[in-house]
Amino acid sequence: MEPFTFTSVLWRWPAQDAWRFVTLPEDVSETIRLMSGPPRGFGSVRVAVRVGATSWRTSVFPDAASDCYVLPMKRAVRRAEDLEDGDLVTVTVQPLDS
């Protein structure tokens, strides 16, 4: 599966101060949902991610409220890329489970 590049707002999970996410667009979420292998725990899909000069591997998770996947943004990434809540973030996501 080809990588996807998109821009999304960095937001804080309301119930947890420490967790920050970006929401994948509907079309990207749908393609990943259809093309990925069986979901892992919590419906997650493993991905390789790049934001600016920072790359890492993690998982995206389904969000029932938006019907899209959300990508957790680790504190180390936010610091390395100087990202704050509400910032627009350009993300490249490469699904690893297909």
Tags for this model:
globular; alpha+beta; 43% strand; 98 residues; Elongation Factor Tu (Ef-tu), domain 3
Describe this structure in words.
- There is one protein chain.
- A seven-stranded antiparallel β-sheet has the order 1-7-4-5-6-3-2.
- The protein has a single domain (4-95), classed as Elongation Factor Tu (Ef-tu), domain 3 (Beta Barrel).
- It contains two helices and seven strands.
- The protein has 98 residues and is an alpha+beta fold.
- The longest helix is centred in the N-terminal third of the chain and has 10 residues, at 26-35.
- 16% of the residues lie in helices and 43% in strands.
- The model has no long low-confidence stretch (mean pLDDT 93).
- Quantity of strands, as a count: 7
So what's the oligomer here?
single chain
The CATH topology comes to Elongation Factor Tu (Ef-tu), domain 3
Q: Which blocks of ≥5 consecutive residues have pLDDT under 50?
A: none
Strand arrangement, major sheet: 1-7-4-5-6-3-2
Q: What class, by secondary structure content?
A: alpha+beta
What would you call the shape? globular
CATH C-level class: Mainly Beta
Share of β-strand residues: 35-45%
Name the CATH superfamily assignment.
Answer: AF2212/PG0164-like
Helix residue percentage = 10-25%
Order of helix and strand elements from N to C terminus: EEEHEEEHE
**How does the major sheet shape up?**
7 strands, antiparallel
Overall mean pLDDT: 93
How many helical stretches? 2
* CATH architecture verdict: Beta Barrel
How far apart lie the N and C ends? 7 Å
Q: What is the CA-atom radius of gyration, in angstroms?
A: 13 Å
Overall tally of domains = 1
